[in-house]
Amino acid sequence: MGRARHRADPALIRTGLLGGSFNPAHAGHRHISLLAAKALGLDEVWWLVSPGNPLKPKGGMAPLVVRLRSARKVARRSIIRPTAIEQQLGTRFTVDTLAALKKRHPERAFIWLMGGDNLAQFHQWRDWRRIAKTMPIAVLARPGYDDVARASRAMGWLRGFVQPRHAAIDWTTWRPPALVLLRFRPDKHSATALRRDHPDWALPFSQTPTRDAITRRMVY
Questions:
Q1: Most exposed: 128, 149, 191, 208, by fewest CB within 10 Å?
Q2: CB-based contact 5:172 (threshold 8 Å)
């Protein structure tokens, strides 16, 4: 099962990438990120706060700088590093972002983190097969999405590249495409529910420009 392995460079910084709107960031994002970090032996998790998700409506989307500040608040005192690096890279689609990050950061080994809900619609993403060939993927199960994710078009292609859960710590030796399915205690937090229950959630966060912790450039 899976592809041939290769020797990993132990000096590489093991980095998980979790993309999303973070509109707003919440405890569920932190929960799955830290559990994934433990399972995969990650040094850091980068939250890629998207300037705009092509698959999500723009209505109700808070400004990027507000969502970045929200993510920083939730991620504080952890190995999670929120960033708006996609704005700096000028990329809109995940496939382009991941290629640019690998080129810009050869000192890091990256793994893409995605929820089971995203796996269910992964086949709708731009060049999704190329994403899978760019770096390993860890799928984080989400309640209610198991059946649709397993039956998805993307999973039909990826099934032959699934790696055993007990080998997740060795992901840097996997040659993509390579996929591992991770299941943790469910967390019911939802950005949709938070926006519904707290429609003014963005008000406490300043809209003034702030410096990105990774790029060191200003985010507007």
A1: 208
A2: no
